[in-house]
Amino acid sequence: MYSVNYHRAASVADAAKLVKNGDAKLLSGGMTLIPAMKTRLAAPSDLVDLSRIKEMQGIKVSGKTVTIGAATTHFDVSNDEKLKKTCPALAHLASLIGDPAVRYKGTIGGSIANNDPAADYPAALLALGATIVTNKREISADKFFKGLFETALKDGEIITAVSFTAPAKAAYEKFRNPASRYAIVGVFVAKGKDGVSVAVTGAGDDGVFRSKEIEAALAKNFDAASLAGVKVPAKNLMSDIHASADYRANLIAVMAKRAVTAANA
Amino acid sequence: MSDVSLMVNGKRVSGAAEDRTLLVHFLRENLGLTGTHVGCDTSQCGACVVHVDGKAVKSCTMLAVQASGSSVVTIEGLANGADLHPVQAAFKEHHGLQCGFCTPGMIMAATDMINRHPEGLDEATVRAELEGNICRCTGYHNIVKAILAASKTMAKGAKGKAKQAA
């Protein structure tokens, strides 16, 4: 790791000032950034640690409205009793990220700011129609995720929370790479008052996306049987040593079926 | 450089460290606590697991300065003098180690797992939650046996204490 200057932010306002230092990066759980710095893939001059900012932590549930502070860890999301009642699919998704030690440190804000094409949270937030709240503005999830490791965030902009309305039914299913345990395909389905939305992670050439084919089939009848014979096009899907685009296209339909079954259970 | 100030195994320690110093290196090189191992150095193997503020974390993926102000427990801090911690005793009893390189991290992760599941553990849960700890010798069977046994011992201990308190 190259030399770096560490700053611990006491508040969001404090972090916004500190992040103007040199080529600073925001540090949350550090589960991606620290390994990237160790391999010198990232070499920020300064780190601004957000993990001790109280106002960025915790989960609020009011009726069907859920707000999760950006510095809330995967462990806390997966164990929150109110969230488990209101949107169990998201708590379950958090319990599938990394391993227990990673879940204690990694945060929802860090995960979506990084927007790894195989990360789990982007699929959930896109399917839930979530709002990403920053220290400057609110961004809808469909405008936030811009491609591989790309988001709508401007330099120095800090995600403070995400919020969404819990859908009537939702579930997440992922097919993991047996070695890395990252999603080769992950599918989040949600059936809310605005209809059905289905978001796919791990597969898109351009990161997380919504599957129109699966949404159209499920809009008629929210049942796994509706997906019999539905073909997901392999165009714009990733092909790599782990899986071909055709294999991923098939997996999307399979994971979607499992997710719908789980959502209806 | 920053001043890193920690409680390590119940003792207050402080020292200057470069901001890029990883917690595992601070523990091993500045404090001489070499029980915590560096295995893969890529957050996968779990040989470096320690407890920070009561939570099992990978100390190769955390800066020492990030932990400043926190309370850290390493493998050296588990035993009570000559009395092994129940998880250490169970690893010994059930032969949960061969070369021993992964063992400090296994024991710290197992202790955290048992603490998180006061209701008790089953084999499937233990195997799933050992996802972040890799052992290349044992094939895991005896590690799983040891953790299940320690979980039972610790539950009995907790009940014993509750009885004493009542």
Helix content of chain A: 25-40%
What value does the Rg of chain A take, in angstroms?
Answer: 18 Å
Rg of chain B, nearest Å: 16 Å
Taking the sheet with the most strands of chain A, its summary is: 5 strands, antiparallel
Query: How are the strands ordered across the major sheet of chain A?
Result: 4-5-10-6-7
Q: What class would the helix/strand composition of chain B place it in?
A: alpha+beta
Give the percentage of residues in beta strands of chain A: 25-35%
3D shape of chain A: globular
Number of helices of chain B: 6
CATH first level of the largest domain in chain A = Alpha Beta
How would you state the average pLDDT of chain B, rounded?
Answer: 95
Query: What's the count of strands of chain B?
Result: 5
**CATH 4th-level superfamily of the largest domain in chain B:** Beta-grasp domain
Examine the secondary-structure arrangement and name the CATH architecture of the largest domain in chain B. Roll
> Which percent range fits the helix content of chain B?
25-40%
The largest β sheet of chain B comes out as: 5 strands, mixed
Distance between the termini of chain B: 51 Å
Q: What ranges of chain B have pLDDT less than 50 throughout 5 or more consecutive residues?
A: none
Large-scale geometry of chain B:
globular
| SSE arrangement of chain B, N to C | EEHEEHEHHHH
The total of helices of chain A stands at: 11
